[in-house]
Design goal:
Layout lengths: L1 H10 L3 E2 L7 H8 L3 H13 L3 E3 L4 E3 L4
Antiparallel strand pairs: 1-3, 2-3
Length: about 60
């Protein structure tokens, strides 16, 4: 799931309009997974410092 999110972020130019507060329907429509699975995946990416989580979006962190 994490790599699917990273691939979607890269394809979208580094930002997606989904975050912790997104509806389960929007998350399922984009990734075909539950909101819980999505939140676990973005939480892991956040801990790895691969993404930034904003109120209404997630973004890839700049790579050095």
């Amino acid at each position: 799931m994490s790599e699917q999110i990273v691939a979607a972020l890269e394809a979208a130019g580094g930002e997606l309009p989904l975050g912790d507060k997104s509806s389960p329907e929007a998350i399922f429509a984009t990734f075909r997974c539950s909101k819980n699975a999505f939140k676990q995946a973005i939480g892991g990416l956040y801990k790895e410092r691969r993404i930034v989580i904003d109120k209404q979006s997630i973004r890839l962190t700049p790579q050095d």
